[in-house]
Amino acid sequence: MNRKKALIRVAALVGLFTLALPALVMAEEAANGAGGDFLMKFGLAIGAGVGLGVAAFGGGLGQGKTAAAALEGIARNPGAADKMFVPMIIGLALIESLVLYTFIIAILLQAKI
Q1: How many domains does one find in the chain?
Q2: How far apart (Å, rounded) are the C-alpha atoms in residues 54 and 60?
Q3: Are 21 and 46 in contact (CB under 8 A)?
Q4: Residue 44 near residue 65 (C-beta atoms within 8 A)
């Protein structure tokens, strides 16, 4: 149980750092003028990379759970396979669209570097 709490704390700190870093970088740039250019580029690169990683990880977990639940339902009731297939595919497409939106945002952030 303690290991699970520690893992949650680490994940929360990483998430907080990831969300707070761009704001800190933008504030540094505003305070220093052009001197904060390196920090801004560094923050954008880190934010894009970590954002892609988190989105891919979360999307993979979501898709795995969706497919597992659908296959378990089909295994229990093979006659319901036709009724479960279309909602499963729609759910998978929606999960994947979130990952693709993150990919597009990461590309836009990389264009600013």
Answers
A1: 1
A2: 10
A3: yes
A4: no
Could you give the CA distance from residue 19 to residue 44 in angstroms, rounded to a whole number?
11
Which of 9, 4, 15 minimizes the C-alpha distance to 54? 15
Residue 91, pLDDT above cutoff 80 = yes
pLDDT tens digits, 17-26: 666 666 666 6
φ and ψ at 77, to 5 degrees?
A: -140, 85
Q: What is the pLDDT of residue 16?
A: 63
CATH number at residue 96: 1.20.20.10
Could you tell me if 47 and 23 are in contact, meaning their C-beta atoms sit under 8 angstroms apart? no
Three-state DSSP at 7 gives helix
Burial of 107 (0-12, 13-18, 19+ CB in 10 A): exposed
pTM, two decimal places: 0.60
User: What is the domain range of residue 73?
Assistant: 2-112
